[in-house]
Amino acid sequence: MVSQLKAPKSNSIQPSVSIRSRRFRHIVEGAIQVFTSTHRSFFTNVMVQALRAAGQGTSVLVVQFLKGGIGQGVKHPVKLGQNLDWIRGDFPHCISADNVTEDERIALQDLWRHIQSVVMQGKYALVVLDELSLAIHFGLIPEADVLKFLRDRPAQVDVILTGPKMPDSIVEIADQVTQFRRNYLP
Questions:
Q1: Beta strands 84-88 and 78-80: pairing type?
Q2: DSSP one-letter code for 165
Q3: Are 88 and 68 in contact (CB under 8 A)?
Q4: Cα 108 from Cα 91, distance rounded (Å)
Q5: What is 25-180's CATH topology?
Q6: pLDDT one-digit tens code per residue, 52-87
Q7: 89-127: pLDDT as tens digits
Q8: Which of 23, 27, 45, 89 is at a distance of 20 to 30 A from 97, taking alpha carbons?
């Protein structure tokens, strides 16, 4: 037997939605979470958190800044379930510091502008920005722009940032910081 639960679709989390009609007394402020490590890594538990939230009816956006290779970009997001959109940059391969072309820089800037736009419109309640710290470290996205985005986002939006070399300025404003380490037992 196969069954499927369908979570109610929320069109928006904009403050313009009538809070009184939902009988909420106040908006719960979103958190900024940082997941970092000393090496480039895929944070499985971050994806589990995103999938769990989407399965419970929360609108989720997962963005992989430096992953490419599948011809995706902002015009072709992957829809995982009814509440999770997944976007990669529109470039032919994964980006590292020494192989960024001008076209890839432009595609990354388009991706960054798109993220800011949809978040400010209130389209998502949880936003995962994978390897954003490396995009900053490689000089592809200004740290000041990221800090402004985090400050100006709608108050109820949760943001998860991942990657090594997370700037201290972001760590300082984060509500939660998780550092993954490799501890090898003798």
A1: antiparallel
A2: S
A3: yes
A4: 9
A5: Rossmann fold (3.40.50)
A6: 999 999 999 999 887 765 666 666 666 777 899 988
A7: 776 667 777 777 888 888 888 899 999 999 999 999 999
A8: 45
